[in-house]
Specification:
The chain is α+β, with helices and mostly antiparallel strands. It contains 9 helices and 7 strands.
């Protein structure tokens, strides 16, 4: 296991390979060599070489299928790539040390009311980043630095855009303690957004994404 993790990390040391890997992982769908090459500004042959290296270590999966938005033409079905198995090396980024620190501080401060103390502590940790954000775009930049992999998506008809957080930094803990972890995550993001009273974090669980999303406050 340790050898496999080390091989995966070393493969990502190349900046072009890392850029291709990040692009494929963020799409949440299969990606062709041509698409990945265009997105990262490299040739198709170079993209194919690096993508296949990533597939050899299990960081990407491969298949042969036509893109969903294009009718199948004549000739060979293109090779496509999608994200492989998750790794303990923080790909995507995980922040288990943060939640451990929050819980330890809460228990030490208020052992009889650790749940509420933990939410207060998580909010304070988010606010302590010291970078006031204004609007969804600035919030997206900061939350991306914190490992949430945000993406601005259009809201429902009559509603404003929302910031979907595609990565949960506390992923492995959610299945075991959903209410606790999602509550702390929500409080943490609220703290990050505290510099802009027009923005709010809300719980909005969805598959393959964080349980929290960011929206503009109503009224």
């Amino acid at each position: 296991m340790a050898e496999h993790v080390w091989q995966s990390v070393s493969v990502l040391a190349d900046p072009v390979r890392r850029a291709l890997f990040d692009h494929v992982r963020r799409q949440h769908r299969p990606v062709t060599r041509e698409e990945a090459a265009d997105a990262c500004g490299v040739s198709r042959n170079l993209a194919a070489f690096h993508l296949d290296k990533l597939a050899e270590t299990g960081l990407l999966r491969t298949a042969y299928e036509a893109p969903a938005d294009r009718p199948r033409g004549r000739g060979r079905t293109p090779k496509v790539y999608s994200a492989g198995d998750d790794l303990e090396v923080a790909i995507p980024p995980r922040r288990y040390e943060l939640i451990a620190s929050v819980l330890a501080a809460a228990v030490a401060r208020e052992p009889a009311h650790a749940g509420e103390a933990a939410r207060e502590e998580a909010y304070a940790r988010g606010r302590a980043h010291g970078t006031p954000v204004h609007g969804l775009t600035e919030a997206a930049h900061l939350l991306d630095e914190l490992g949430f992999e945000p993406a601005i998506e259009p809201g429902s008809p009559g509603d404003s855009d929302v910031l979907v957080l595609r990565n949960c930094p506390f992923h492995a803990l959610v299945a075991e303690q959903t209410e606790l972890v999602c509550g702390l995550n929500h409080a943490y993001v609220e703290g990050v957004l505290s510099g802009d009273p027009a923005l709010a974090a809300r719980l909005a669980p969805r598959p393959d994404a964080c349980c929290v999303e960011v929206c503009r406050r109503q009224g």
